[in-house]
Each structure stands twice: as structure tokens, then as C-alpha cells.
Amino acid sequence: MRKLAELLPLQFRVLYRQFLLRVVDLEALSVHADIPRFLGQFASVLIFVSVIGAIGPIMSHEALTAAPEAALSFAWRGEQSLISGMMLVVGLTAVICWDSTFPDRRDVMVLSPLPVAPHMVLLAKVAASAALLGLAIVTLNFATGIAWPLLLGSQRDSNWGFFQSLAAYWFTMIAASVFLFCSVLTVQGFTALLLPRRLLLRLSAALQIAAFGLFLGVYFLQPSIPSLLEMAAPENHWFLAWSPSFWFFALFNQLNGSLPADLGWLASRAWIGLGIVVSGATASLLLCYLRTMKKTAEESDLVPGARGWHWTPRFGSALQTAIVLFSFRSMTRSRQHRLASAFYLALVFSIALSWLRSDQPGASPRPLTPEFLIPTFMMMSFAVFGLRGVFSLPISLTANWVWRLTQLHAPEEYIAATRRFLFYFAVIPVWLISALQSLSFTPRHQVAAHLAVLALVGWILAELSLLGFHKVPFTCSYLPGKVHVQVMIGVFLILALVVALSLAELEMRAFNDPLRYVCMIGVLGAATVGLWVLNRRRAKSAVLYFEELSPEAVTTLGLVWLPPSGSGTGPSVHSHN
Questions:
Q1: Is residue 312 part of a domain?
Q2: CA torsion sign, 501 to 504 to 507 to 509?
Q3: With 0-12 CB in 10 A as exposed, 13-18 as middle and 19+ as buried, what is 152?
Q4: H or E stretch including 463?
Q5: pLDDT value for 561
Q6: Which of 29, 295, 383, 555 is the most exposed place for a label (fewest CB within 10 A)?
Q7: What is the structure's pLDDT at 574?
Q8: Do 208 and 286 share a domain, yes or no?
């Protein structure tokens, strides 16, 4: 493999390595960052998801030996879920690489004076994006790409059933991934061609957040259609016609030889759509590299501010207002912060929309149920700890000296400002969403009681997230590989679900027992006050830091100095070994 890589042009190999590493913003990382370990952790998360997805077909082999209708329903549900999950991961990967495939100002200013042809830059960027996309496809289908073809192939009379299912599975996953990735590239490319660069920079942020919300919303809200009767129903025809995941579901069954004749038009849409978006992405990339590289160098990336009267809201003292506004603008203006925050916010809204889909309000108010209480606690957990996770990514390490030189106040005031930002942009928005969702429930005093509990839980989560956080948000370098991300994500999901289930059960019991409810509020209130006092006491003696450093390990050789014995003239050195 190495010898084959050496046959490629040297310019291509150098540019490919640089563009592949630039998927992660190197300026945001600590000087001791372990980037390969950081990327390996996220790859292991996808492998873990793939292994979990492979347990289903292994443990449910009897499902395909049951009645034909039940076997078909089980197989179709699994196929639709796998394709939807693959398209979600690819969609998020495409948004993460939002600006990495097209030329930016740094590419033009650095590479234009060099004897590097534009097509070489284009090929290197496409190869880097394809490598990242291939990594996502392989890791997410590491186990399911074998387990499901084995299960589906075992139901075929042919001896080649497994190999046909294996080829159909991997071709479908690659085709669905290419379709979605090229769709994003097509939208980006033609938007860059049609709009001035200044307007494009303004619109790019909105498109990026909208794409995040679209991919996550479709994944959580799109229903599964596990029977041929439902797919052939006229009322579902329009939905199938505009849902790419069902196109590639039909394509998989067509390649696998198990597609009913009535659904052949869905597979045709997959082939047509794949051809259109690949052609569109190719044309947009070529035109951008031929027409917009000069425009990128000539036009400034800075968007002039609007003239006229400006009003700035107050969030407490002058320092607290400055930190809250700095944090908000960092989260909205920076690509990496906008990306990370949009992910968590989209998760919150997806949970809310998923609950609305599964539990539509009736004509009359209904009593509160655990099915409503649990999502509200989950949304609060995702919002608070998600925003706290975004704090770890700096906006610009080269500008941190401004905060260091202007640190004229006690550290506790900076930490208090961080608490306000968590309240304003995590706790309060989720509380308002839950309050709007609770309008269809009765009695009203139980609804008010739940909102009071939710407010205290949000406050407790905010205080927990501030334990040990002795820095200004978005100003400290990030040290990847410091923790095991895959372990932390799994532990967080399990703990959040367990806490949500426990709180919902306790709250349902307390609704019918005023004394129990008062005790519950008292315990939550005491925990809130205790954590608040603890954070304030720690903040008084805290020292703000702006650089994540790995702990220094001192390795000894086992040598010790011993005083000279007798009348020796010098020290003697002995070893413990």
C-alpha cells in the first residue's frame, strides 16, 4: 500500500495529508494534543454502535423463521433503520466538513504563489473528504455489514445468497452515503457560485445549522413502514416519493433480489437521484475551483457591521454582560462552535418533536404521564452538558492574551458569568419548550409542580457542570485524548436515562401525596443550594487557566545519593536494582 502511495505525485500526497488533518481545527488544540488518539476515539464510538446493531440479527434469527409477514416486517424494519442511521452519520460528517472541500482564503493565499495547479488542490481535497467519508462508512458498518447479510442470505435458497446480500448491502450503504454527501456539496457549490462571498459567509452559518436540524429531525421523525400493504397505500405515496432513505431501501432489495414489483419505481428514483447529485457535485466543484478562487482572494472574509443604532442587552454586571455576549457570539460566529452547539440543540428539538409525533395531543387535556416527564429531563441533560462541552473549544487561542491582560476581577465573577450563560441558553430555553408542551395536560397544579421540579433539576445540572470549571468559556485550549470519549458518551447516556426514569417515577408518586412532593422539592432545593455554595467557595480560591496541559510524569532511574562512608572524599551513587 505504501509503494502504491509513492506512485502518486508528491504535491498530491503533501496536500492530502494537510487537508485530512485540517478537518480538526489545529489552532483550537493544546500543544500536547494527541490527534490520532482523538480521531480513534470517535471511530471507536461508531464501531461500538455497529457492534450493538449487529446483536439484533444475531439474537433474532428466529424472527425470520416465523410467519412470512412477520419475517418481512422484521427484515424491513432493520434495513430501514440501518440505512437511516448511515445517512444520518454521513449527513453529520458532511456538515462537519462544511468548508473543507471548497477553496478558502488560506488555500488561495498560501497555494497561489506556489507552482500548484488548481486541479491538484481539488483532487487532494476530494480525496481527503472521501477518506473521512470512507472511515465513517467502514466503522459504522464494521459488524452490521456482516451480520445482516448473513441473516438475510440464510433465507435464500441459493448457495450464493450471502454473497449477494453482502454485495447489495455494501453497495447500498456506499451509494446512500455518496448521494447525501454529494447533495450537500451541490448545495454548497452552487450557492458559492451564485452569491457574493460576503453574503455567502452570512448564509453559510444558517445553512449549516439548518442542515444539522434537517438530518437529525428526519432521522427522529421519519416513520418506519414495515409492510408491503402500507407502502402500497396511496396516502404514503407522496412520502415515499420524497424520502431518499426509502429510495435506497428499495435499491438494496432490488440488488438483493427481494424487491416486490410494485416498488420498482422507488429503486429507479435512487438511481436517478444518485446520478443527478454526483453530476451536480462534480460540476459545482469544477466551477468553484475555476471561477471562485480569484474572487476568494480579492474579496474580504470580514463582513462589515450594520450602521445605525445598536442595542445590547444587559446580563448583570458589565463583566458578566461581556462574557455572556462573547460566549454567544463565539458560539454563533465560529464554524466549530456553531457545529457543536447545533448538534446538541438539534438533539433537544428532535426529542421534543419525536414526543409530539408519538403522543399527539387529543381534543381534551390529558393527565401527566411518565412518557412526557422523561423527555423533558432528557432534554435538560442534553442541553446543559452539551453546552458545557462546547465551552472546551476555544474561539481563538491567539487572542487569549486579551483575557489574561484584562483579568482585573476575581475569578468567582467570571465563573458567575458562565453560570448565567448556562441559564440563559440551556436551562431557560428547555424549560420554556417543556412549558409549551405541557399546555395540553391537566390538572394545572401538577403541570406547575413538574415545571418547578424541572427548573431545580436544570439548576443542579448547571452547578454540576461548573465543578472544576475554572476558566472563561471558549478561551482554553482543548486537549483531545485526555478522556475516553466513547466511554464518557455511553456512561452519560446511561446515567441520564436512569436519572430521568427515577425522577419521573418519584414525581408521579408525589403528585398524589403532597407531603412526598414537599420532601422531593426540599431535597432538590437543598442539593441546589449546596452545589451553589460549593462552587462559590471553590471559585474564591480558583485560578483561571487558559491552556490544557497533560500531567507531567517524572520517571526515575532508581538512583539515590548516599553519604560517603568512612573517610571517602566523594559521594557514592548506588542503584536499587
A1: no
A2: negative
A3: buried
A4: helix 444-465
A5: 53
A6: 555
A7: 46
A8: yes
